């Protein structure tokens, strides 16, 4: 009798890096250098040439050293994480970086302590899911099921937002995701009217601030009123028929419920929480960066 191989659980590779084994696929943090096809995208779309990279990194480090109250690493990999979404323009990267850490001060309750251990319940409920395959353009795919699956008594809206931030921070550490970005699928099927009251004007303002001014990942493909034109062009409504998603994301990257034919299963929610917890030290380190306690934020 052939022994069954356990799938849908966290395992560790030879370097003791955690990943979710899905049988015919896996989810892992891809921290290695990007493949040649991604390098070519970076060159064409992000101005990523050796000359531009060297110059931009040096200038951004100099700009950051002038920020006396901002504590962040100054290694080249960290600089690239903010320079890539800003096409290697140092001033733009500095603005995005400062906005990113201002979030922790502006929305303290929603943006502090973004740690896997405190957010396992979000993933356990299956509300947030990372697809095992990137799309045909190399983009990470994040799915938010905020309809009938969502029980606000178990997972407050604020915790969903923290879970999104955690997932984005994980993608930010991946060079390929820095280059290609991410797409988000928001599944609102079966959303009760009672849940809509959770979306207060204050929350909407915070979310727009995060997406438009602070997120340090190329959001390539999500519709909210009063958003900037650049983002509005990247948001698509599909109604109840998710087959139209295939016009934007290849079917091989989508599960059957969204009109796809992806061969491997989606990761179980608890496994995704455990997966992120494998990198708890990285998230704890990231959580320690930001403005010093003596810094006074001026609105």
Automatic annotation (TrEMBL):
An example molecular function term from Gene Ontology annotations: phosphatidylinositol bisphosphate binding
GO terms under cellular component: membrane
Pfam family, one: CRAL_TRIO
CDD domains from the UniProt entry: SEC14
Span of domain CRAL-TRIO: 60-266
SUPFAM superfamilies: CRAL/TRIO domain, CRAL/TRIO N-terminal domain
Protein name (record): CRAL-TRIO domain-containing protein
Organism: Megaselia scalaris
């Amino acid at each position: 009798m052939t022994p069954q191989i356990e799938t849908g659980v966290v395992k560790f590779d030879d370097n003791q890096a955690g990943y979710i084994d899905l049988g015919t696929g896996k989810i892992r943090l891809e921290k290695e250098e990007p493949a040649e096809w991604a390098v070519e995208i970076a060159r064409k779309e992000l101005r990523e040439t050796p000359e531009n990279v060297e110059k931009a990194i040096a200038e951004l480090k100099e700009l950051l050293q002038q920020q006396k109250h901002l504590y962040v690493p100054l290694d080249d990999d960290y600089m690239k994480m903010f320079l890539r979404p800003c096409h290697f323009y140092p001033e733009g990267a500095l603005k995005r970086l400062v906005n990113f850490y201002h979030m922790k001060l502006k929305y303290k309750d929603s943006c502090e302590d973004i740690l896997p251990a405190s957010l396992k319940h979000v993933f356990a409920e299956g509300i947030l899911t990372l697809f095992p395959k990137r799309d045909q353009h190399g983009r990470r795919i994040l799915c938010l099921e905020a309809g009938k699956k969502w029980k606000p008594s178990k997972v407050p809206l604020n915790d969903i937002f923290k879970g999104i931030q955690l997932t984005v921070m994980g993608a930010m550490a991946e060079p390929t995701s820095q280059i290609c970005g991410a797409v988000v699928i928001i599944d609102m099927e079966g959303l009760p009217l009672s849940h809509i009251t959770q979306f207060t004007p204050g929350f909407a303002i915070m979310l727009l601030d995060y997406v438009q001014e602070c997120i340090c990942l190329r959001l390539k493909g999500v519709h909210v009123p009063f958003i900037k034109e650049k983002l509005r062009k990247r948001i698509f409504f599909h109604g109840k028929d998710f087959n139209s998603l295939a016009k934007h994301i290849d079917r091989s990257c989508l599960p059957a419920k969204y009109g796809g034919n992806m061969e491997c299963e989606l990761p179980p929610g608890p496994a995704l929480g455990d997966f992120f917890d494998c990198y708890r030290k990285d998230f704890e380190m990231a959580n320690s960066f930001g403005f010093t306690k003596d810094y006074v934020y001026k609105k």
